[in-house]
Amino acid sequence: MSIGVITETTNYKASIPSTSTVTYLLPTMKIFHSFTCSLLLGFDSVNSFTSLPFDPSHHHKSIAIMSSSSRTNDETSTSSTAKPILQPLPSLSSPQIQSHSTFLLDMWGVLHDGSQPYEGVLDAIEMLKKEGKTLVILSNSSKRREDAEKMLVKLGFNPTDFDNIITSGDVSHSLLQNQATSLGCSNWDMLSNIIKNNKDQRKVFVFGSGDNDESYCNSAGWELSPIEEADLIVARGTFTINDGSTVISKKEEEEKYWKVMESALIKAAERKVPMLVCNPDKVRPDAGLPPMPGAIGDTYERFLWTTHCAPLGDMDELGARTYVKRVGKPFQEVYDIALQSCEGDVSSAIMIGDALETDVTGGNRVGCTTLWVIRDGIHGKDVEEKGAEGVVNEFNANSDFTYAYGEKCFQSMWLISFGGERDGRDGEERECRYGDSNEENRRTP
Questions:
Q1: Are 127 and 121 in contact (CB under 8 A)?
Q2: Bridge partners, residue 288, by sequence
Q3: How distant, in Å, are the alpha carbons of 88, 359, 376 from that of 419?
Q4: 421 three-class SS
Q5: 39 contacts 49 by C-beta, under 8 angstroms
Q6: 428 φ, ψ to 5°?
Q7: Is the distance from CB of 208 to CB of 293 less than 8 angstroms?
Q8: What's the pTM?
Q9: CB neighbours (10 Å) of residue 87?
């Protein structure tokens, strides 16, 4: 990690090679943290990021954040010598998929694009239900289950087709009440202690979605408050900042939004205020891949570490991580709930998702089979350009800076789309388009 001294307000630029450049105005910081993963910037790549060396002699005017995708082939290949084993499958009817009885399904990027279901998905759900499969939605949405159900109905799904609908927001809401065990997962000890020691009044500072943030916290027994008084930070969105008396909208007051965010994170880090991240996703699969609450969590974790590390304190990176609780894929709580129907046989479950960092990493971590949906989701553009194996190689080379925390993705099946093929290509043409561009490295089912 590089740290430079900043003495003036500066435009910090995220220069993303081969894509557009996005600039946000960040206010003055006595110490600028050059992070090695997602920052609160609008990224045009979903890969992890590596900081360039920071030279204080350059008058602190700008800092470039290099996408791992901009590394040379030599740099990438030397980072991880083992090759991933990726098995392309033609459809959901493949025996390798049908052998599983429990299907854990991501929503956005697998079932729909936020506006409509992907073609063939509704038929695929109907087919799986007829075959008696257990269907469980695992969504990193910071909203409650009832909101997810409304979204499904709006998009043409029948929520009763799913045996369970688990959202990060619902699990987080239970954690805020110290009642997560009722869902089948553990409470967060640090938060449990706060609740036990503040039975009459619990104060929270919120990075919000702008959609019922106050009622979300109030219904769990928390009162919104300024960061100076807060016992906890809740990160459930990147659109507003709410301290109970003032709501700052990024859309309406963007410069003020970033300034208040920075100030709040600095003050919170000094006091070691815990943060509950109700959606660990770092970017949203929309145009421009805008940041999500997971990026706030990563940023705050590094504020904590650099505020309390030696010589000022004794906190290390792992210590900082204990103050930031991320709820959702790839973390344990949602899987503990989702896998209850497996009755201990995790091998009977298959995790189907589009994101390597959350869906595939989470499935691998708990011992599920994983099925990576490559075209409709967050990696679609990169897979088109580099092939599935190329994208996985890049992820593995930089996994230290992701939720994988150094774990590698070495084995997974992949499917073009959960709803099936839509372009009429046969299997060989599909393999050329989405597989490794190097002929000798291409794999067949």
A1: no
A2: none
A3: 15, 18, 10
A4: coil
A5: yes
A6: -65, -40
A7: no
A8: 0.81
A9: 16
Q: How many residues does the chain have?
A: 445
Q: What is the pLDDT of residues 70-111, one digit of tens each?
A: 333 333 333 445 667 788 898 899 999 999 999 999 999 999
Q: Please state, in angstroms and rounded to a whole number, the distance separating the CA atoms of residues 12 and 29.
A: 12
Q: Which of 121, 185, 84 is nearest to 418 (CA)?
A: 121
Q: Which one has a higher pLDDT value, 50 or 347?
A: 347
Cα separation, 419 vs 414, whole angstroms: 13
372 three-state secondary structure: strand
Of 403, 418, 406, the residue nearest 360 (C-alpha): 403
pLDDT tens for each residue of 105-119:
999 999 999 899 999
Say whether pLDDT at 222 is over 70.
yes
Using CA atoms, how far residue 393 sits from 76, 85, 302, in Å, is 8, 11, 26
Q: What is the pLDDT of residue 421?
A: 62
Q: How far apart are the first and last CA of the chain?
A: 41
Contacts of 294 (CB under 8 A, 6+ apart): 38, 277, 279, 280, 281, 282, 326
Judged on CB neighbours under 10 Å (0-12, 13-18, 19+), 249 is: middle
Rounded CA separation 329/318 (Å): 19
DSSP state at residue 375: S
Instruction: Output the CA angle 414-419-422, nearest 5 degrees.
Output: 95
* CB of 200 closer than 8 Å to CB of 169: no
- Asked if omega into 293 is within 30° of 0 (cis), the reply is no
Q: What is the dihedral of CA 280, 286, 290, 292, to 10 degrees?
A: -20
Token pair belonging to 147: 């909101």
- Per residue in 315-363, pLDDT tens? 999 999 999 999 999 999 999 999 998 888 999 999 999 999 999 999 9
Structural contact between residues 217 and 240, judged by C-beta atoms closer than 8 angstroms: no
Using a 10 angstrom Cβ sphere, with 0-12 exposed, 13-18 middle and 19 or more buried, the burial of residue 428 is exposed
Q: Token pair of 123, please?
A: 């038929």
Beta carbons of 134 and 163 less than 8 angstroms apart: yes
Which residue type sits at 136?
Answer: V
Which structure tokens are listed for 30?
A: 């006595």
**DSSP states of 220-271 as a string?**
TT-EE--TTT-SEEEE--SSEEE-SS-EEETTT-HHHHHHHHHHHHHHHHHH
Measured distance CA(182)–CA(223) in Å, rounded: 23
Q: What are the distances in angstroms from CA 224 to CA 97, 174, 238, 272, 294?
A: 46, 17, 17, 18, 21
Helices (DSSP H) in 342-408: which residue ranges?
361-366, 380-397
